[in-house]
Design brief:
Elements (H helix, E strand, L loop, with lengths): L3 E8 L2 E9 L8 E9 L2 E5 L3 E2 L7 E2 L2 E5 L7
Antiparallel strand pairs: 1-2, 2-3, 3-4, 4-7, 5-6
Length: about 70
């Protein structure tokens, strides 16, 4: 599991999260920067390759795709 939460802002195709709480305590009070793009109903969020403590320090790259479903019609 990888999880973190916090306030965020966007700047030129990047989302910057100021971390309040995280699975990896070393992320707390840091800013996690991810690239993002919206393609129709899909939100793509990409992390740069980095070491992850939960995976023995292995360098990995996170890629998330969120899809918007069931939009209400007006």
């Amino acid at each position: 599991m990888i999880a973190y939460s916090g306030s965020f802002r966007t700047e030129e195709g990047k989302i910057i999260i100021k971390v309040d709480i995280a699975w990896d305590e070393s992320w707390i009070a840091t800013e996690q920067v991810r690239s993002f793009r919206i393609d129709g109903d899909n939100l793509h969020i990409d992390a740069a390759p980095q070491p992850y403590a939960n995976f023995g320090g292995r360098v990995m790259r996170g890629i998330l795709v969120w899809r918007r479903e069931g939009r209400a019609s007006n």
